[in-house]
Amino acid sequence: MAAAKWNKRRHFEQEVLPELDVLFAAALYLARDQNWANDLCEKTIVRAYRAFNHKLKVANYRAWLLAILLEIARTEEIAAPPRAAREAEPTRLDKPPSSVGVGFNIEALSNNDIGMDRALHELPDDFRAAVVMVDVAELTYRDAAKVLEVPIETVRARISQGRALMRAALEQLRRPGGLARA
Amino acid sequence: MPESRPTRSGTESIDHRQFVERCLASNNDRELESAELRAARAHVDGCAECKEMLAAATEMKAETLSLGALRAPHELRERILAALNEVDRESEARERRRVVAWISVGTIAACVVAIIYMRLRPVSNPTFDAAIATFDKMEPNFAPNVPSNSPDQLAAAFIYKFGVPMAWDFSALGLSTVGGRFEHDADGAPVGYSLYKGDRGALLCIVYHDEAFNFPPGGKLVKGIHLYRYKGYSIAATRRYAVFAILVTKLPTTDLSQVFAQLPG
Fold first, then answer.
1. What is the DSSP letter of B160?
2. Whose CB has fewer CB within 10 Å in chain B, the N or C terminal residue?
3. Domain extent for A68
């Protein structure tokens, strides 16, 4: 019995937990709030761990985790910060939130990254979710469609539209004084 | 933002952005049909605007990918590992409770089985054992020593000897009266025997004075006669005044019950 427990934990840490960084990035860009993103990640990992067993057949743990994360975000919306607050004060990576830990490598983000971050944040929710799944989490369109529970053509359309909107936002942000204005 | 424009053939409306997106998607969506991808690439190769859009979009995509290079905060990792430890503790506690529950259920089941066994197990009764031994010994070679060719004659003999008619009519079971026999035990006290026999088996009745016999619980009482199933035998026991009669047979207890049920109340 003890060996089985140990194996479960070991397999989970080896096979699933390495996806935490991507999960965190996706949560941060989806939630636009550091604390909520942390809560989402923790709940997602715990729920996944509870469901994890040797009989579980998961082709893509990253997609699995993201699907769980979206499910939690949908069902626990009430626990999230008020939407108005998130809209008014999105997470700004050029100013790390106080709760950001030492592992949050803000220094690695260039001005370009910061601009991208803002452009991504300004996308409407559906477009941002599609871009996050495909361009940040690097899911296939098929997996993204499953995670987002929309047809694959919808994913393609949202990504296309989302990138176009980001490009337009970036052009504006990268004008002289753009970042400072933002 | 690109607009939908007519194709060179002018037969249908297309979106240049879709071609660009399909080219970009080929890296993500490996299942994109090759014909679809070839068509998209062929279009982009021949369309300057699309080439420019593809270059910009590719750069855009690469920049977006860089956002995924974030690392989860150390404190989040610590929180998650602590939460997993808690889940492990809960699982172990649940497993322990499950084991304890199974042990409890097993123990209770064992107790129930033991109680049932104890209740059903025939409690050794020396009187019954002695009666069975007498039956096994006397039945094959029973030698009557009193005139008792009918139940009435037998009843009269017992009335004469013990004061009560310890005799029954078992003809309904196919048993006829073989006869009666009176002896004395080692203390000189009288003991009466009567044997009934038929194709289905035999029944021996033993009569003697005994005021102290305690009828064991668990039997069936029919018209003042206690019926028991004991070690493969049917035992019937009754006492009238100080005279005790015990009947032994291998016939079913229900047969005896039917006979005794017909007795007058």
1. H
2. C
3. 1-84
Per the CB < 8 A criterion, the answer to whether B157 and B147 are in contact is yes
Considering the domain architecture, whether residues A124 and A58 belong to the same structural domain is answered as: no
Q: Do A42 and B72 touch (CB under 8 A)?
A: no
Q: Which chain B residues are closer than 8 Å to A166 by Cβ?
A: 60, 64
Q: In the predicted model, is pLDDT for residue B160 greater than 80?
A: yes
What is the three-class DSSP state of A98?
A: coil
Nearest neighbour of A140 by CB, restricted to B28, B80, B87:
B28
| Cα–Cα separations (whole angstroms), residue A31 to A48, A103, A114, B125, B189 | 19, 19, 17, 82, 104
State which fold the B126-261 domain adopts.
Phosphorylase Kinase; domain 1 (3.30.200)
Q: Contacts of residue A45 in chain B, CB cutoff 8 Å?
A: 80, 83-84
Evaluate whether residue A6 is within a structural domain.
Answer: yes
User: Chain A within 8 Å of B69 (Cβ-Cβ)?
Assistant: yes
pLDDT in tens, A53-104: 877 888 899 999 999 999 998 887 545 555 544 444 444 433 333 333 333 3
- Quote the CA–CA distance of B216 and B234 in Å, as a whole number: 14
How crowded is residue A113: how many other Cβ atoms within 10 Å of its Cβ? 19
Asked if pLDDT for residue B191 goes beyond 90, the answer is: yes
**SS3 call for B66:** helix
B3 touches chain A (CB under 8 A): no
Shared domain check, A148 and A182: yes
Provide the domain count of chain A. Answer: 2
Return d(Cα B253, Cα B230) in angstroms, integer: 10
| Residue pair B20/B44 in contact by the 8 Å Cβ criterion | yes
pTM for the predicted model, two decimal places = 0.56
- % of residues, chain B, pLDDT over 90: 49
pLDDT mean by block of 10 residues, chain A; 182 residues: 64 93 91 88 95 85 95 72 48 37 41 72 90 90 92 88 86 68 44
Residue at token pair 């949050």: A104
For the beta sheet containing B190-198, the strands, ordered from the edge strand earlier in sequence to the opposite edge, are B176-184, B190-198, B201-209, B243-249, B233-240, B225-230, B220-222
Buried b (16+ CB within 10 A) or exposed e, A59-85: ebbbbbbbbbbbebbeeeeeebeeeee
Residue B90, classed as helix, strand or coil, is helix
* Interface predicted TM-score of the whole assembly (ipTM), two decimals: 0.76
Q: Are residues A113 and A80 in the same domain?
A: no
